[in-house]
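Subject: two folds for Thursday's group meeting

Dear M.,

Sorry for the delay on this. The cluster queue was jammed most of the week, so I only got both jobs back this morning. I'm pasting them in the order they finished. Each block is the input sequence followed by the predicted structure tokens. Could you check whether the formatting survives your parser before we put anything on slides? The first protein is the one we discussed after the seminar.
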Amino acid sequence: MAPTPHPGRRRVAIITSNALGDTLLLMVIVRNLLDNGDEVAVFGRVAYALRGWFPEVDIRPIPVEAQLREALAAWDIVVQMHDHQPVQNLPTMHPRVIMLSSFATEAQPRPMLARFTEFCRVELGMAETGTQNGLVPRVGLQHRRHARRVVIHPEASTPDKRWLPGRFARLARRLERQGYEVAFVMAPGELDRWNDLLTGRFAVHTFSNLDGLATWLYESGWFIGNDSGVGHLAANLGIPTLSLFRRRTVAQRWRPAWGNAQVVLPWQWLPGAALKERFWRETLTCSRVLSAFARLTAE
């Protein structure tokens, strides 16, 4: 389908997701709009927390519901990824709302990055598009300064995405024997699930805000974690990233999209998606993850 030409400079409001990975992907649309000469404002909690990493972008908190309709009235187009969050009933608040749900749920196993760049070409009529989201490192930081530090993120947004805790601990011990400095990272509210397994044995870091997490990740050497937004952030920061996924089709759609980012999958010998989904933790062995990490470090 040929891009639809658009007249003049548009004013576009992007309402970003409550999820970290989705927000970073949506910033690709923002970057393309800005490069196209359009005026853009970004509204979102996660985006606002990372606003220091996107210095050229107008990023604002989402106004309270009573003020939201008035805040959006100044913009020609309003774009949101999900129908249900962060703003519910958005089409009732503005005459021209574009929801990206169809791009997120289409059957083809294309990466979300490819879907969003296609949206820019087909729906927004851009002749040229890019795949970067414009993230800029903060001044004074040294990229991958701790070259032997492997960050392990054992958490995820839902339990079905989390690998077995004992295997994360075994992976950490084996990485230490290879001479790496292992550091676990998680949100403060997630510590209780890991105290018995990690406390006193491994370094465990928590951050009260995403800016602090991004700063620390940027100076780390490597990243290993479940399918999660933190993996997208690490890849976006240029940290070589290994993500643990349950199934191939999920990985093809949601894998981190930037830099040296690779995926490790469970053994595929179980028949059918249901069995693969149920037993993926058991069929994803520590040795398999270590082999994938060795390939990552050889790049």
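Second protein, same layout:
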Amino acid sequence: MTAHPLVAANLSFGYTKSDLIIEDWSEQFNAGEMVALAGASGRGKSTLLYLLGLMLGPLSGEIMVFGRNVTRLSDASRAGLRARNYGFVFQDAVLDSSRTVLDNVVETALYSGLKRDLAVARAHDLLRQFGVETRSDHKPGQISGGQAQRIALCRGLMGNPPLLLADEPTGNLDAESSRAVIDALRQRALEGGTVVVATHDPRVMDSCDRVIGL
């Protein structure tokens, strides 16, 4: 029997033990589905996404990736596992202002071992798909917020990651750009990926297979 791509078991997290943001939370995520983490601001959506993405460690509980308990891995092992298995789309894009758009998109694929010429070709394809290829030689300070978010999506999709996590990916976008982002996330799930989105956007939730309230 194939293991679930991503499982959280009894996760608890808080910046102090007396003030937990996440408490005894469990869920399993399937290949080929898009799942929304929904709830009001301050309910822990982004925190939970960072736990699932191994960027934060829980106070207690376990995270399993393809059947492997990865909760207590070293920082270096976690970074390697993220590079091979995860794509991220952060709220507010989080692009490196000192590097070009193209280099921002290509960088994550290089960490996963993809040769640069192949990564550059893939990046151009994605930038073209989302209408921002003409900005590839610009710096993030020279593009709009909507363009930056679409570029961040290109970066997240670079390696066709089996696990794609997105934090409010439509938060700064107009209706047309939001639809393009939602469709791309949906397509990654249709291709067999596991997509988890922290959102308060009804359009995103309507496109998901499941909505988990927090």
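Two things I noticed about the second structure. The two ends are 30 Å apart (CA to CA). The chain has one domain: 6-213.

Cheers,
T.
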